[in-house]
Each structure stands twice: as structure tokens, then as C-alpha cells.
Amino acid sequence: MLELDTVTAGYDRRTPVFRGASLTVAPGESVGLLGPSGCGKSTLARVAALLHRPDAGRLALDGTEVRAWRHRAPRELRTAVGVVFQQPRTAADPRLTLADLLVEPLRATGRRAEALDRLAELAPAVGLTPDLLGRRPHEVSDGQLQRACLGRALALRPRWLVCDEMTAMLDASTTAALVAAVEAYRAETGAGLLAVGHDRVLLRRWCDRTVEWKDCLPA
Ligand SMILES: Nc1ncnc2c1ncn2[C@@H]1O[C@H](COP(=O)(O)OP(=O)(O)OP(=O)(O)O)[C@@H](O)[C@H]1O
Questions:
Q1: DSSP state, 90?
Q2: What CATH fold (topology level) applies to the domain 2-216?
Q3: Whose Cα sits closest to atom 5 in ligand 1?
């Protein structure tokens, strides 16, 4: 279970972006979170991905309460969640080839020896052909780079995936390919998904259920 319980978060403690937001994703479930621009969906997604410390409230992953965020979080909790953002250009190190990008989490967690084998699985899973793997971010399209960012999010086989507007910049066919890659991964591993966005049609088609932002807040 991924449980966000009465979370208050923002960028200035005196004026949080939202107060008391709650949302639960069951194991293996896919939940779409819909809401107007600027309401705080990305901020909540970053809390769920252990990237942003909330001002108050509770996050629990599979029954373990998260008490530290970002690099302070224990590795087993940090690696339980894979995250994909809207903007691949700001999320990818421009110096790395796509191959290095895909397996960056393995190197970062001291599992370098597994990198080649995992690369051979990840690249086809996200639709990256061998000719693209040696290129750097400025030599590929946004869609190709986003495929690499999705592969990187899957590299450590997370139990939870957070996709924050993952396909907002992409065309219909790349969107369909990325959603299919996420769903293939979930079918194989049973991972749960929190997909944040404002494309109601896409999220309703993609997810088991969709939640409106206002329904996450106290009445
Ligand atoms: N790093 C930051 N520092 C200060 N304020 C921020 C920061 N990131 C976001 N904000 C502000 O927090 C509020 C919520 O932003 P957030 O990105 O969570 O909203 P959102 O619902 O995801 O919006 P969108 O759908 O447009 O992406 C906005 O007013 C935004 O300007």
C-alpha cells in the first residue's frame, strides 16, 4: 500500500501549497490523479516519490512509515519508488549516453555488474533501438529521451511507479508506447502506479480508477 495521509506540503512553511491531502494506492493498483494546474499535484507526487519532505502528515510504503526524504531516506525505501517527470531534458544528465542513463540507478547503488544484462532488458522494454543507446540527450527527440527516463525509473524494479505528467509533451503514438511499457512492467511485476496529469481521457483509459484533487483534500 502507498498511503499519503493528511499531508501538508509546499515551499514555504507559512503558506503551504496544500493542507491535509490524502490518497491511497493499493498494491498492484493504478490510480490517476486529476486536478487543475498549480493545485499541487506534482508536489504531492514528489512527496510520494520521497523527493520532497512534507510539512506535516504521513507517507507509508507497504506499511513502513517514511521518516526521511531524498538522500537521507533509507535505500530500500528510496529504491521502492520509480519516478518519471514531465520534462526529460531537465531530468536527464546531458553528459550521459542513453545506455548510461538507463542503468544509472544500478551504478549509483553499487550494482554495476548487473548493468549490461539489465540494459539488454530495459532498452527493448521502452522501445529504444541499439542505434539510439550510444547517443546523448541532445542527439535524440523528447520522446526518445522520455523512453530512457522511463527505463531508468524501472531499472531497479520498483514496487511503485510515480508518473508525473509523463506524456504531457509527447505525441499520441509515443504516449501509447510509454503507457504500454508501464503496463507491461506492471503486469510482469505487480507494481502499483500513481499517474498524475490533467488528461482526463488518457488517465481514465489507463488507470483502474481516477481521483479528483479536490477529493483528496479535507471537506
Ligand atoms: N520549487 C518550487 N519552489 C517554490 N514554489 C514552487 C516550486 N515548485 C512548485 N511551486 C509552486 O507550488 C504550486 C504547486 O505546484 P505543482 O507543480 O505541485 O502544481 P501542479 O498541480 O502539479 O501543476 P501543473 O498541473 O501545472 O503541473 C504552484 O503555485 C507552484 O508555483
A1: H
A2: Rossmann fold (3.40.50)
A3: 11
- Residue 21: which residues within 8 A CB-CB, separation 6 or more? 4, 6, 7, 8, 9, 40, 44, 57, 216, 217
Give the whole-angstrom CA distance, residue 207 versus residue 194.
9
pLDDT tens, position by position, 192-217: 999 999 899 999 999 999 999 999 99
**Cβ neighbours around 214 below 10 Å, total:** 11
Q: Is the CB of 158 under 6 A from ligand 1?
A: no
- Tell me how far apart the alpha carbons of residues 177 and 127 are, in angstroms, rounded to a whole number: 8
If pLDDT is split at 50, 70 and 90, which confidence band does 22 have? Answer: very high
What is the 38 CA–ligand 1 centroid distance (Å)? 5
> What are the structural domain ranges in the chain?
2-216
Output the nine-digit C-alpha cell for 71.
538522500
Helix axes 115-125, 142-154, angle to 10 degrees: 130
Q: Among 41, 52, 203, which is best to mutate for testing ligand 1, by the most ligand atoms less than 8 A from CB? A: 41
**CA distances to 111, 135, 195, 213 from 35, in Å:** 38, 36, 12, 5
Distance 202 CA to ligand 1 centre (A): 22
pTM strictly above 0.80: yes
Ligand 1 touching residue 41 (CB < 6 A): yes
At 148, list the grid cell.
530512457
**Helix or strand or coil: residue 65?**
strand
**40, 216 in Cβ contact below 8 A?**
no
